[in-house]
Amino acid sequence: MRVLSTWDHGLPANLEALQRLQAGGSATDAVEAGCIQCERENGQRTVGLGGWPDRDGTVTLDAAVMQCDGRAGSVAFVRGVAHPIQLARMVMDRTPHVMLAGAGAERFAREQGMQVRERPLDAEQHAKWQAWLQEKRYAPAVNVENHDTISMIAMDASGRMAVASTTSGLAFKMHGRVGDSPIIGSGLFVDRGVGGAVCTGLGEAVLRTAGAHAIVEAMRAGMSPQHACEALIHRLIDRVPGSGDYQVGVLAMDFSGRTGAFSVQRGFTYALAERGQNAMHQAPAALGQDSTIEVAMRVRERPGT
Ligand code: SD4
To answer: Which of 6, 171, 206, 229 has CA atoms 20 to 30 A from the CA of 197?
Structure first.
């Protein structure tokens, strides 16, 4: 059993996911539980309804889940749903579709008995939005206080793998903007017999390279998860101008449990739970002279998990 998650908030999310796995849950149950934990967290500004709003002052959420058997569910541009990852799973389990967006996704949520209620911005969200309106300058931050979209990969006791992602997207995006996180093949991808990959950071850069799919296909062609992550980041830097000003971080896992992590710039942290340990690591980065996982640095550890 193994769980890999983006950013510092991956540590508690991994714990939640591990509990599911230890109770006999599937990889899908594990990534869903981990994402719910993060969506529930108070003060979380990049995941769930507490996230920073778009430039119209509306919080809109994206989430997706995919299993190694190819089944997937996704929701994009949803408002007022506390746990979009649950809704994404419902799309996978209860509809003939892979993706629902906007008002249709919200209607489906209501039909499934979920509460859909747009809540007013809290004082901090409102103040930040008002401050943004003063300048109206759109400049996504590089490593948002080590908290950002949560993207997860889990492998369960039966050797099944699942990936998931949930986010409020980039602060002050245009109304209607959808990032990479709910797009199967961009923000997340997993395939039986090969492995899984997830992304975080500037969604536009990931979308333009179909990031997670590219990583999984590189692993299919024989690359290790680490080298597949590095190959994608180097391709992205080559194809998407301005890499000095944006961050993309990627994680990968294969079915023998090998993992990979790499980012455009330093500062991308991730949590790995394996062999009874749940620990934070700093990913090596393309623009920081790091090149392989050997230099991945253990920065924090939480024993007894
Ligand atoms: C997006 N990729 O909406 C997300 C944001 C993110 O780390 O992951 N930030 O573009």
So the answer is: 171
